[in-house]
Write a structure and sequence with these properties.
Blueprint: H1 6-19, H2 21-39, H3 47-58, H4 63-74, E1 83-90, E2 96-103, H5 106-119, E3 123-124, E4 134-142, H6 148-157, E5 162-165, E6 171-175, H7 180-189, E7 196-203, E8 207-209, H8 211-225, E9 230-235, E10 237-239
Parallel strand pairs: 8-10
Antiparallel strand pairs: 1-2, 1-3, 2-9, 4-6, 4-7, 5-6
Length: 241
């Protein structure tokens, strides 16, 4: 796709993440707290918690912050009770958007999400209005230069569903969300460290945005991602430089 580089975008995203480290830590604390509440505070027995703790380590979050979040979630320390909520909606030209949130006040969160959509030219949809356009899956992205045969062997043996090479020579490994931890362990044991490793909503097909429409679409996404209660935003819009 001319003008679009997945690997350039990944580096850009990492730089943006570093610039917003405080906010990233806040989101990770919420995720750790909820994961511990739902599956217990044992990292080895709770894959979701383990993923969140791994992300916290990648974001250079102090271990004491992680420990406190686990304790709050598992009930050994008082704290705010967060709940997960997902919103769906449309951006420019009907592009699909999924917004994952964690909140202690649903009324506040839905009002803020709706405002971000409406103010920037989008609109909220009903539950299920766009989710059918996405696949909930584990995703691992590897930069160009990885040994294809060894990666494919390690991934498929670990239970991955697919290994796809992109036009730049990078690889994407997809798996069921429940197999994420096993696949991640197996890949790392085989010597493969992903540039990105996360559970996502992957669009079945993407719509390319350029020019003014790309700017407008990015504005909606930025407005949503900047909300305090938003954990992640997924879209089928592919915004080119």
């Amino acid at each position: 796709m001319a003008g679009h580089s997945k690997w350039a975008n990944i580096k850009h995203k990492k730089a943006a993440t570093d610039a917003k480290r405080g906010k990233i830590w806040t989101r990770l604390i919420k995720e750790i707290t909820v994961a511990a509440r739902m599956g217990g505070g044992d990292v080895d027995a709770n894959p979701r918690l383990r993923l969140a703790v791994d992300k916290a380590a990648d974001a250079n979050m102090p271990k004491e912050n992680v420990t406190r979040a686990v304790q709050r979630g598992s009930g050994t320390l008082d704290g705010v009770n967060y709940e997960e909520v997902r919103y769906e909606g449309y951006g420019i030209g009907g592009a699909a958007i999924i917004v994952d949130c964690m909140t202690d006040n649903r009324v506040r969160t839905v009002a803020e999400v709706r405002h971000a959509f409406n103010k920037n030219g989008g609109n909220m949809g009903n539950e299920g209005s766009v989710a059918f356009m996405f696949q909930h899956c584990g995703q691992f992205l590897f930069a160009p230069g990885v040994n294809e045969d060894k990666l494919m062997e390690a991934a498929l043996e670990a239970g991955a569903d697919d290994v796809v090479q992109d036009e730049e020579g990078g690889f994407e490994v997809l798996c069921d969300p429940f197999a994420f931890s096993n696949v991640k362990d197996a890949l790392e044991k085989a010597g493969f460290k992903a540039e990105v490793a996360e559970i996502i909503w992957k669009p079945a097909a993407e719509t390319v945005f350029t020019g003014e429409d790309a700017v407008k679409m990015q504005k909606i996404l930025d407005a949503l991602e900047n909300l305090d209660d938003v954990q992640a935003v997924f879209t089928n819009a592919l915004i080119e430089d």
